[in-house]
Amino acid sequence: MDFEFLFNNIVELTVTGLVLGSIYALLALGYTLVYGVLQLINFAHADVFMWGTFAVAWLFILLGVHGNSDLAGAAPYLILALVVAAATSGGLAMLVERVAYRRLVRKRALSYIILISAIGASFVLSETMGIRDLIVEFLSNAINAVIGIFGGHVDLSEFFADYIGRARGITTLPLTIKPTTVLSIGNFNLRDTDITIIAAALIMMVLLDQFIRRTRLGREIRAVAQDPEAAALMGSNATNVVSKTFLIGGIMAGVAAVLYQIKVGSTSSSIGVVLGIKAFTAAVLGGIGNLRGALLGGLLLGVTENFGSAIFGTQWKDVVAFLLLVLILLIRPTGLLGQTLGRARA
Amino acid sequence: MRKFRERAGDWLDDKLTPVGAVLGRKPIKVPLIILGVLLVYALPILNLPLITTPDSDFPNVLFTVTVYAIVAVGLNIVTGYAGLLDLGYVGFYAAGAYTVGILTAYHFAWPFLLVLPIAMGITLLTGVLLGAPTLRVRGDYLAIVTMGFGELIRITIRNTAWLGGTGGIKAIPAPQSIGAPDGLFQIPHLAWDGLNPLIDLSRSTKFLVFGVLDATPYFWLALTALIAVIFVERLVKTSRVGRMWEATREDEDAAEIMGVATFKFKLLAFASGAFIGGLAGALFAAKAGYINPISFPANLSILFVAAVVIGGSGNRWGAIIGAVIVAYLPERFRELENWRLWFFGIALVIIVSFRPQGLFPSYSQRKARRAARQSARLDHSEVTADV
After folding, report:
1. How many CB atoms lie within 10 A of CB B357?
2. How much is the ipTM here?
């Protein structure tokens, strides 16, 4: 128990908590949106996000960007990374919906059956990343078996060595983004990367909120969330809407992936499990199915977790989130702001 | 295509029904059962070609498979009978293993056979403690909460010096041998030259001597435990409790209205599952001799769920076959070992999509499916008759 540390660094801890919280909040959107329309947990979402973080790293390797840079210098690459990561995560999220959900939802399978299918999908996504060196080697051998007949030979493993090296371990972003201190009060330094992450997350949240409120697709999503059958009778294609909902969630995960890379600067195939539980906690904390709840829950979780790890030690950081999840579900399972994407408030 | 898939499913059903019926339901002649059990006990001695694992020690593999089978039977109670998706089952496995580690080696030096029931008791208690707050939560929330608890147990072990911390617990003693050092008697293994059995005198198992070199006595111990578990589980399943579990799984609200105290029965299922998971963990610890937090990763839980679902959740024999598939195949085909999680992830998606009842569904599910098919055929024939 180290309360003194907490009080001495409370501003710093709050800001870094908000930074982590913004990433949780963006991820929580994926859970909340899908829960809103399907009443199911989008189990593979965290792995879709994990692929986004790899998309960023691979893009940087592809472009040959490396060394150190400040945020302004890295900005053009980061904006490109935003597009690539959003496309990767969005596409994968739609694929997950198509493969793991659509058929079972149409058959009205029991919810735990659909959940198992989603867990399978999540497993495949993270394992594919974890054994990507073996997969490339296998493909390489298969191709060589064919083109070997004509005397050709390729070594994909060597060609992709930068991308598949240490498949089970940690892949660091080749470009190190150095934060610049913008403002300094006492022992607290406000860094530009932190401001950027929080601002970017807030902007995305506002955009999404307005999108759901004002556009035709947003209205359809809300309609399907309220009553899929009535929505279908009114002429909206529920399957299509669900698929697009996954896409939107995936895009948000892609944005979160870029912010994560700015903050952390490395990734691995197994980050999905813990991040997924935390983002889900954030969604439940705010009220699952509620977009603004996801933002509130994410930020709150980030800060609580930081305070918790300041008091109990950083090795207990993940425990704080799990305990919080259990507490909310016991005390107020509908979350702080209440559920439902369907209501006008969403 | 759809038609073909349905046909294929039906065909598989028809082919598997007699197998499943013999395995799971119809009273088979007692001598046949005894013969079968003896054959399983003799597997490491017989060392049958094709079945035996060329790349790794066969008795060792058999032990692992049996421990997975115990886990599958336990998880089948939670997930298959009561319909509670538990993604943190590895937590109970760890609790059992650590109780053994602590009581036989790390802080005390009690004998294994005394510690075994204590380990199961402590795991049962863990199950009740974790289940009591979480089982009020809705079904799909439960999955993620249990997953959180699995991680919680692992992190707690990692951060607590009293539990061994990151270094884990080393030198866990083997169970007490009977008639050591040479055992009550020795049984030579068979070696095969093509199809000719030869007696391999260089390799013989000392009966009931638990050592490092020979895993056969551990396999016998685990198999005995598995048989005991199946025996008790069978009694519980066919009792009122088993029916309450199934009622809760199918429709919790309806069950509650009919007077089933669903929470109580869910907790009972959760605790029974934990109890059996603790047994498996205890056996694992005694055999391995060394445990650390890395031995209990989160995706082991998912592998356990995969075993139950692939085999057929709700049917203990299906779950056991699932466990054999999940634990044995990667050892038999060693070059595929790194692919196994990937492969079973894909298997989960495919099985759940096209055959949600698993490869070997339970008797009641098979019956329901057959009835549905027959009524569909009747409908169809009526239509054609009208035309």
Report:
1. 22
2. 0.84
